[in-house]
Amino acid sequence: MHGVEGFMYPNEMELQWSILIxxxxxxxxxVAGAFIxxxxxxxxNVAAVKPTYRLALLTALAFLIVxxxxxxxxxxxxxxxxxxxxxxxxxxAMAMFGFVYLWYLxxxxxxxxxxxxxxxxxxxxxxxxxxxxxxxxxxxLWSDNISPEALAxxxxxxxxxxxxxIPSAFMLHGYVGFIFGSIKAxxxxxxxxxxxxxxxxxxxxxxxxxxxxxxxxxxxxxxTIDMLCVDTIAKYLYYAFIVDFTLEMxxxxxxxxxxxxxxxxxDFMVKTKxxxxxxxxxxxxxxxxxxxxxxxxQFMRWSAGTRKAIYSVAGALIMIGIFAMRWNVVIGGQLxxxxxxxxxxxxxxxxxxxxxxxxxxxxxxxxxxLWALVKILPPWTDARPHAGDIRNGSTTGA
Length: 398
Description:
The chain is 68% helix and 2% strand. The longest helix has 35 residues, at 93-127. It has one domain (18-330, 348-392). By secondary structure, it is mainly α. Residues 385-398 have low confidence and may be disordered.
């Protein structure tokens, strides 16, 4: 049973949104952040992050495939979800997500990856036999044109898709914050800064995730980590994190300045029920500590080994802190009554439909999908001996 303190209406005693709804904005945030990191190389010409360009795209795709699954699990009749495409409700932000998701998945991310990998797919198709040849033939759409003109066209279209993908990624995750910020009846959520805070925290978490994945996979493959690449990623991570932290502090200062009737209830929540998750995990461990660690690299000369350790710790803490932020928004916003006179608690079950076990599965599943994608579409420069210089239109081996 959920513990209740003070006066609450019956429909406020049980939380409507569980840990699965916490996972949804967390996973979509990783998608948006990973794509933004990939765009640094292709759109903004940050050549130092090139070793992670394709890895970031595949990471975004792996997490994007899993993104709607927590929502599907949460729905009472998930088999009806297809109806939002055949009977669209343009006034429903939740319903319109289906179209944003489909646009970003099929029209942007998948196409960009296909155009970027098309030459390698063709070369693998030519060099394969049997079922493997049939599989890669399907991926190439049975087209083997890799002339310089065709490759130049691929690169041009890929660049256009990346430019289109940036605002699409913002829409994909920004709308989640838009939904929460639009709920006027809940002062914990109702703030115009909510979409922006969600967006920048997504950028931070996605960049941190790709940085960690690159370092771990390089270690597993026993290849040298490109420190210029990692240092550059960490620098952009640091800048984005400062903006994210500033926005959250601005939101807090605004709440304190307005000091409406909800302030005492929210203050009580932070000091009691959310003290560990917000003060300790989100702010101290998930924000201040990684900010100080990343700042130390920017202003002090550490060895490569020390920087790797700092990036690993900071990246892991950031991932935990952003998850705690999502938890505090989704769960925390449901723990107090609309009258501000009562509070409830959230009991996390384990092996239930919306318990901890399915949440763990949904967190592991993107990494399994990423492993499969990496096997099919190797993102490593040293794993593409026949790739050549795609951007220059060359068809010779590397």
